[in-house]
Each structure stands twice: as structure tokens, then as C-alpha cells.
Amino acid sequence: MLKVVGASFGRTGTSSARMALETLGFGPCHYMRELFTDDSHARDWLRVTEGRGPGLDRLLGRFTSTIAWPAAFYWRELAEAFPNAKVLLIVRDPESWYTSMARTLYRTRPADPGANVRDQVIERLVWQGTFGGRFEERDLALAVYRAHLAEVRDTVPADRLIELDVAGGWAPLCEALGVNVPDEPFPVANTSTEYLHRAEQAGVL
């Protein structure tokens, strides 16, 4: 059962937050890589984008938390389905966020997003569903990002919402979740440099 519903866009520090959540006992945490490691799971997500297939509660049944896309696209539905779960909104400076998105996720977007199931899911939920096929229009994408932050803040009651900047370290997250601060550094993962290095190694760039 979900205890934390992620409502954050990618490239806001979600990989670091995922590792933090799992360290704090809120794992396993669902994130985009699940689409790359489990073909049947990716096919189920594709059915969800088509309005059929398993319900979100069943699809995410073995997870304790979610972070970023694809689940973040359905943050409203998940927050309603799991009324006792906290809703996690990770924030980042909008301009910095857009630069990171453009350098990484958008730059490695496949030329043919229909070639496999996982890319179809990402295309439908992120590039079309979230940005309407217009991510390259910087001002529009920034407006979408800012509107998303405002909507989550306006929709989720204050006692359920965890607003986090990963640069703040453990204390804000641990306080919101009611757990002790671990005796280890807050994770730093999937930086733009790391992302691009993996992409080069995989022959994507």
C-alpha cells in the first residue's frame, strides 16, 4: 500500500529522493526505470494510458512509494485512492529544471517513440500528456511546470503535503514522515553528468 505518492516532475532530484525514501523504509519506490526492467509492467502502464488494463492500485500494489513519472502523471488519482498517503512534491528552480530536462530526458528521446512499449508510455504521459508535444517551447514548458507546482499546493491539504528541495538534506523529509534522520549523507544520484555518461555508454548519444 502506498504511503507516499510522488507528484514531482522528473529532473527535480527524484532519483535522490527515491533513494532517500527507500533508506527511510518507504520502499520499494516506483520510478521510471521500472518500465525499462519489466516489459510486462510497461505493457500494463501502456494499457493504463489507454484507459484500460489494471487499476493503479493493483499496478502499484507491491510498492510503498512512487516518485516522478509515470506514476506522477496520475498523482491526483493516487492521492484519492490512498487517502492516508503523504503527497511528495519536490521543487527545483524552474530555469534550472528546464535546462536539465532539455539536456537529458528530451535530448535522449527516441526518434521513433512508438518503437517499444516503454517509449510509448513515456511519450504519451510526458511529452504529449504533460507538455502537449511542445516541450521545445521553453516558456510554455516553464509555465506547465509552474502551474503544476501551484495545482499540487492548492489541491493537497497542508497536513498531507511534503514539499521538498533535495538540497535541504534529510531533516525536512524525515520530520514530515515522522522518522529519525539517518547517520549517513543524503543521497545524490542521477546528476545530468551521470545521466549523459550512461546515455553515451548505451550509444544513445
What's the topology here?
Blueprint (H helix, E strand, L loop, with lengths): L3 E3 L7 H10 L5 E2 L3 H4 L1 H11 L6 H4 L5 E2 L8 H7 L4 E5 L3 H10 L13 H12 L9 H18 L5 E4 L5 H8 L14 H10 L4
Parallel strand pairs: 1-4, 2-3, 4-5
Helix pairs in contact: 3-7
Short account of what is shown:
The chain has 205 residues and is mainly alpha-helical.
Describe the protein in words.
- The chain is mostly helical and 205 residues long.
- 46% of the residues lie in helices and 8% in strands.
- It has 10 helices and 5 strands; from the N terminus they run βαβαααβαβαααβαα.
- It has helices at residues 14-23, 34-37, 39-49, 56-59, 75-81, 94-103, 117-128, 138-155, 170-177, 192-201; strands at residues 4-6, 29-30, 65-66, 86-90, 161-164.
- The longest helix has 18 residues, at 138-155.
- It is globular.
- The mean pLDDT is 96.
Task: Provide tags for this entry.
single chain, 205 residues, mainly alpha, Rossmann fold, 3-stranded parallel β-sheet, 46% helix
* Tally of DSSP β-strands: 5
- Looking at the overall shape, the CATH architecture is 3-Layer(aba) Sandwich
How many domains? The number is 1
CATH class: Alpha Beta
Rg from Cα:
16 Å
Structural class: mainly alpha
Instruction: Provide a count of the helices.
Output: 10
CATH topology: Rossmann fold
> β content, as a range?
5-15%
For the record, give the distance between the C-alpha atoms at the N and C termini, rounded to a whole number.
38 Å
Organism: Actinomadura barringtoniae
Protein name: Sulfotransferase family protein
